[in-house]
Amino acid sequence: MQRFGSLEVSKKEVYIYYKELENKLAKSTFYNHIKILRHFYHFVSNENPHINNPFARFKPRAPVRKFVRVLYEQEIDTLYARMLENSRISDYQRFLFEFIYATGMKPSEMQRLVLSDFDFITRSIVVAGDNGSRRYTFYSENLEPLLLNHLEKRQSILEKQGLYHSAFLIDWETGLTVNGHIIYQAITAIGKELNIKLTPSILRHSFAVALLENGCDIRYIQALLGHISILTTQIYEKVEIKSKQNTIQKYHPRGKKS
Questions:
Q1: Are 22 and 14 within 8 A, CB to CB?
Q2: What is the C-alpha separation between 82 and 78, in angstroms, rounded?
Q3: CA-CA distance, 202 to 120, in Å (whole number)?
Q4: Where in the chain is the domain with CATH 1.10.443.10?
Q5: Residues of 47-78 as b/e, b for ≥16 C-beta within 10 angstroms?
Q6: Contact indicator for 14, 54 with CB cutoff of 8 Å
Q7: 108 pLDDT tier (thresholds 50, 70, 90)
Q8: Class of domain 73-238
């Protein structure tokens, strides 16, 4: 209510606010935001009949709920072993795979990384989100050798090409910076080579579910992923529950179908 300063809001103020959110937020976040406001004002108008619900006429279409495809820890390990055995998958592709799975970052966020975003003592990274926000994410000790190898390779390529810039991700042939589309293509190409559906989003989802399955608090995962609404992050709880149900059905004597 800080935006309006009062519970009584004009239709014009609400319309302007509605349009700002619609243009700024992802469809699912926008829908949830308006839904909460509608419910809140419904309660207020019931308690205070003189106050109308200014959001009553605003009914955004509910977004189509996506099926979240994830790879579980054992699947990730198996997939990475297959990548190592396949000479058509480059070291660069393997690095991008590990980096996304280790940090949960989007390609659009990765393309904005510069060297000063990294703290190699705390193993933390400052991430510039798509909505202009900034957050921290962290990487494990397991990623460190691959990360250092990438930095050495990066420096060697830049020196060879006579280039100097601070972009973290570069093309290993030209030394030029890469964009999110190139990162996306590199990951999906791995999937095509190994005959498996694979995208950066799948790795990002897998990162979140791996944390959740190992006991990480959902709000911490929300912060690491940069989700504005906790409702967006909670979809991973449903994925985890479904996974556990499938495990019980497969292994528990009472869970197996006769």
A1: no
A2: 6
A3: 27
A4: 73-238
A5: eeeeeebbbeebebeeeeeeebebbeeeebee
A6: yes
A7: very high
A8: mainly alpha
